[in-house]
Amino acid sequence: MNLYISVDMEGISGLVDHTHVDSRLHNYERGRKIMTQEANAAVTTAFEKGWNEVVVNDSHSKMNNILIEELHPDTKLITGDVKPFSMVQGLDESFDAAIFIGYHARASLKGVMTHSMIFGVRNMYINDVQIGELGFNAYVAGYYGVPVIMVAGDDQAALEAEALIPGIHCAVVKEAVSRSAAKSFTPEKAQSLIKKQVSIALNDYQNIKPLVPPDKPTLRIEFANYGQAEWANLMPGTQIEPGTTTVTFQAKDIKEAYQAMLVMTELAMRTTFN
């Protein structure tokens, strides 16, 4: 049995603001160590439960945060940038289940460091379903028939996951006080909770259904300002909805929609504010 684990950073215990998740700032080294420990808690549990292969994908920022030397020796780590499928790089039909560690709620919602890929995105939609990183990544997993069986993060990420995926298991390692404050478990307590919930989820993985994406989905991204929409609209096949900052793209499948989202958000980040 093969397990895929995508690890973001904003939902890790004790991490509450950009100083913990930006490699240029003073709290980052502490943050990446705790991130590695939470990832390893999930990995070691899977191996202890008899799973054959565990692939971890570093899914935050430049995606080179996890300390490989501190992982279980049998782990396979996907690390570095650029990745064609970003937070779900390497995920395919060979996996029996997926787990998301360190995840946060989508943009425009309450929660610690909420956003959707970049801070210029207000909302993202697949057809009429409002999604963030969690939902989009779960759709890609569902394309391959892989269920997302557990999410670890703050309480708001758990609420989002439970609304999208019936029966999903969650490890709530902190409760949002504001976007940059939380009531958090200590790392030791958070890792213990993750191990417990991973164990339960692995026992239950056959009862959780994949989040199956729609055929030929329409991707819609609402940006914070028109300049970002203009940059995103440079990608062929996109249109700006009149009178809005929303850019649309008609995709042939969820994989194409995902890569379109990556290109559009990368372009939008070129916008300046002077």
UniProtKB/TrEMBL annotation:
Pfam family of the protein (one): Peptidase_M55
Keywords annotated in UniProt: Aminopeptidase, Hydrolase, Protease
EC number(s) on file: 3.4.11.-
UniProt keyword annotation of Lyase present: no
Single GO MF descriptor: aminopeptidase activity
Top enzyme category: hydrolase
The protein, known as: D-aminopeptidase
